[in-house]
């Protein structure tokens, strides 16, 4: 058995600690499964449904195209592409696919591939026909606009010409005037050489290009053209681009074929759509009637085509989720099959995978069912392998413990069976948050919002939420714990939106006599026992409130910090004990414990003694002169009998613990390494030459790996980090005091400067405005920004101050092959 399996056996017998689901990761084993080829697919399907095997890639040296099931994965990819095409078409048509799985029976994979191909071909054909019909329909609509507008041009021109002719005839005198035509109509009719035949081109041009279009036409024909334009009231759909464009109807009159050629080229360059038109009024009416009839026919045909397309898409939408899930399953199964090694006989597939020890019976049951259901003559073989390879880390979590475990995993995945900080984080994280956020009014607001999420969790879990809402919903039980602890610490601080209440009895202080005008600042005497729970409400508003609360919260922060750091150091002991690492117990755990408690454990003891005795001793002076002048008498700062001797002993222990941490461990590691390899060099040589070569190579490799200088430097860094960290980490816990003070002062400012100030005006309008601003300020600043700030600071205290005392976090997470997780994956 390998080292890790010995640990598993030790844990099964009890070990040094009682088994806990979260305290240590699940015992893992490396297994080999030999699967007949004919039942491989069904076997992987059953194992994927079980979701308790992390397969190793035994074909890492092969490219994706060289693997056994490359063609099947290619087929799955093609089917996934077709499904994405269907999804896009449904989105364009405004058809929503059903999120619920259809009750249809199992679909064969090959049959589904044929079905998807047929549906894709049908949809492409329908879309192509609809596009052609829609283009023809849009062209006819444009043609109808040209017919209507151009007819108006000709009618207005003929009317104007007839009126002008009548006017000329009525006023014609003498030799004529400037308005008299140079060639009379009679001359034009009798002399064909004087007749001028004008041609014209009609169509539509984009409105934004109309001015440039006219200018280019004028220059190209040198002014030998006449252009009439009219804007179309509503934008029309361009037949080529399919987009709505504002257009103008135009008619260009010209003379000569050269001018016509130039005009046609210009129309093409400007994207102007040309349509035929006649100046014969009768033919115009006939063309309008024909175009109108064609528009009606095309509209009917297009609607029928769209109905047919929608019918196809609705049928697809009913089965889309089932098809999509099946394709994802097949692709995942074949991807996993590609990680398996093909036997020399090409009749079996060999798999190696990590699995939890508790899952052995479930895996064997799945293998037997797969062999039976696939009618395989040979069953799969399940073997447990012995290895020194480090297994993955697997914690079984639920919806309550999962967010706390995610906090730990964000820092780093625990080493296999390393002590898991997630167990303690369930309590310490929300508690440290609440120390900074303590206000039972704000805690109730958090509690109510969280209870809404919890009460609707079934409905919300099936919906797509935004990123921020998704995080809040996933951590709803963490927020619940944070809210409950905030209510608890708020009751201790006696703050409800910064307002104190006498919830647990009357204040211990009262006014000395009836002449006491301000009972919160002067003339107070203690008339009864101490306030039973939390801070006495009389402190709020007094002149000494800030100094009292500062002293209380600062000392409380140090006590909490030293307690949590000691917990971290004790967890390093349990790690060392579990992994049978006596060097870490004697030369890491013990000196670290002595150093931390010789200084800051002693400070915590002085704080508690001072609270219990009511002494006026200056702890700053005691701690500073403990280093600067350890033999000096303490005088009025003495809190304990024989305190000077105690301080000298603690100071000596702190100094001794530094070389204790630094030197013995590297030296003993070097000694152990030398003894191990010296013993190996005198063992009997046995086996063939190949095994001897492997052993020599392995031995030389181990010698190369061990470098005393590197080990010593590594230990030196850890020693310096711990010594300096003990000071900086203890100071870092003062953020509990700072953020608690900031939260309390902000809450007090909002209450006094918004609510009380608005109340003092005796104006209902100002009061309503003050209440609204108070609500928005409380929600925006105290319930959102302050919550986020306290959360981040609590996160830092766990990651840096607590977990660095024992947590290595250099493991890798157990990622099983699970078909149940495919539904959560995005396309």
From TrEMBL:
The chain crosses the membrane at residues 431-454, 474-493, 556-574, 586-609, 645-663, 764-785. It is a multi-pass membrane protein. The keyword Membrane applies. It holds the Pfam family V_ATPase_I. GO terms for molecular function: ATPase binding; proton-transporting ATPase activity, rotational mechanism. It is found in: Membrane. One of its GO terms (biological process) is vacuolar acidification. Residues 109-136 form a coiled coil. One of its GO terms (cellular component) is vacuolar proton-transporting V-type ATPase, V0 domain. Keywords: Coiled coil, Hydrogen ion transport, Ion transport, Membrane, Transmembrane, Transmembrane helix, Transport. Essential component of the vacuolar proton pump (V-ATPase), a multimeric enzyme that catalyzes the translocation of protons across the membranes. Required for assembly and activity of the V-ATPase. Belongs to the V-ATPase 116 kDa subunit family. This is V-type proton ATPase subunit a. It comes from Canna indica.
């Amino acid at each position: 058995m390998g080292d890790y399996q010995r640990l598993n056996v030790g844990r099964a017998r009890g070990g040094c600690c009682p088994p806990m689901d979260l305290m240590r990761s699940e015992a893992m084993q490396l297994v080999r499964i030999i699967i007949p080829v004919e039942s491989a697919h069904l076997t992987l399907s059953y194992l994927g449904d079980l979701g308790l095997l992390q397969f190793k890639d035994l074909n890492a040296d092969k490219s994706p195209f060289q693997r056994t099931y490359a063609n099947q994965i290619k087929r799955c990819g093609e089917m996934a592409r077709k499904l994405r095409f269907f999804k896009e078409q449904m989105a364009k048509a405004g058809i929503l696919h059903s999120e619920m799985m259809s009750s249809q029976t199992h679909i064969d994979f090959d049959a589904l591939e044929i079905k998807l191909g047929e549906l894709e071909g049908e949809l492409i054909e329908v879309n192509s026909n609809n596009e052609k019909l829609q283009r023809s329909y849009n062209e006819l609509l444009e043609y109808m606009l040209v017919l209507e507008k151009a007819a108006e041009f000709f009618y207005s021109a003929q009317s104007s010409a007839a009126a002008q002719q009548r006017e000329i005839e009525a006023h014609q005198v003498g030799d004529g005037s400037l308005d008299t035509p140079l060639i009379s109509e009679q001359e034009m009719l009798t002399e064909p050489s004087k007749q001028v035949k004008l041609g014209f081109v009609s169509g539509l041009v984009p409105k934004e290009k109309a001015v440039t279009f006219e200018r280019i036409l004028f220059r190209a024909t040198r002014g030998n053209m006449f252009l009439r334009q009219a804007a179309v009231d509503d934008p029309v759909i361009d037949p080529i681009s399919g987009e709505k464009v504002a257009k103008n109807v135009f008619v260009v009159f010209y003379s000569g074929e050269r001018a016509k050629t130039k005009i046609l080229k210009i129309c093409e360059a400007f994207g102007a759509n040309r349509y035929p038109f006649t100046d014969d009024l009768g033919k115009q009416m006939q063309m309008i009637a024909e175009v109108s009839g064609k528009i009606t026919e095309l509209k009917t045909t297009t609607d029928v085509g769209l109905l047919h397309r929608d019918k196809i898409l609705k049928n697809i939408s009913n089965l889309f989720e089932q098809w999509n899930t099946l394709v994802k399953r097949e692709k995942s199964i074949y991807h996993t099959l590609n990680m398996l090694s093909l036997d020399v006989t090409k009749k079996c597939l060999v798999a190696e995978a990590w699995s939890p020890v508790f899952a052995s019976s479930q895996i064997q049951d799945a293998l037997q069912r797969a062999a039976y259901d696939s009618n395989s003559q040979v069953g799969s073989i399940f073997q447990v392998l012995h290895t020194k390879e480090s297994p993955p880390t697997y914690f079984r979590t639920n919806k309550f413990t999962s967010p706390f475990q995610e906090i730990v995993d964000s820092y780093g995945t625990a080493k296999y069976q390393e002590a898991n900080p997630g167990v303690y984080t369930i309590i310490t994280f929300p508690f440290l948050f609440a120390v900074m956020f303590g206000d039972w009014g704000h805690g109730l607001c958090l509690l109510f919002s969280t209870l809404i999420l919890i009460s609707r969790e079934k409905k919300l879990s099936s919906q797509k939420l935004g990123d921020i809402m998704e995080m809040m919903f996933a951590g709803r039980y963490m927020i619940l714990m944070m809210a409950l602890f905030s209510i608890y610490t708020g009751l201790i601080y006696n703050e409800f939106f910064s307002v104190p209440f006498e919830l647990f009895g009357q204040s211990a202080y009262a006014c000395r006599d009836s002449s006491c005008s301000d009972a919160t600042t002067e003339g107070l005497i203690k008339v009864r026992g101490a306030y039973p729970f939390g801070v006495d409400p009389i402190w709020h508003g007094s002149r000494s409130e800030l100094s009292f609360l500062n002293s209380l919260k600062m000392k409380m922060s140090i006590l909490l910090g030293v307690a949590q750091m000691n917990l971290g150091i004790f967890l390093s002991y349990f790690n060392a004990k579990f992994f049978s690492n006596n060097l870490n117990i004697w030369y890491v755990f013990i000196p670290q414990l002595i150093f931390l408690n010789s200084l800051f454990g002693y400070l915590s003891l002085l704080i508690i003694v001072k609270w219990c005795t009511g002494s006026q001793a200056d702890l700053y002076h005691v701690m500073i002169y403990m280093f600067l002048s350890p033999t000096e008498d303490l005088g009025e700062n003495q809190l304990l009998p024989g305190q000077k001797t105690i301080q000298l002993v603690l100071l000596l222990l702190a100094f001794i613990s530094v070389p204790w941490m630094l030197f013995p461990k590297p030296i003993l590691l070097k000694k152990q390494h030398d003894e191990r390899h010296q013993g190996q060099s005198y063992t009997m040589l046995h086996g063939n030459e190949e095994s001897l070569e492997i052993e020599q190579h392995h031995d030389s490799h181990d010698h190369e790996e061990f470098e005393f200088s590197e080990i010593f430097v590594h230990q030196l860094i850890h020693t310096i980090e711990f010594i300096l960290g003990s000071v900086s980490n203890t100071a870092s816990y003062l953020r509990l005091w700072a953020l608690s003070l900031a939260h309390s002062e902000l809450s007090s400012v909002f209450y006094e400067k918004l609510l009380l100030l608005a109340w003092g005006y005796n104006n209902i309008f100002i009061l309503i405005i003050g209440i609204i601003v108070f609500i928005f300020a409380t929600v925006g600043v105290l319930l959102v920004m302050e919550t986020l700030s306290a959360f981040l600071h609590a996160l830092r205290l766990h990651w840096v101050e607590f977990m660095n005392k024992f947590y290595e976090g250099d493991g890798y997470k157990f990622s099983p092959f699970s078909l149940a997780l495919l539904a959560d994956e995005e396309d």
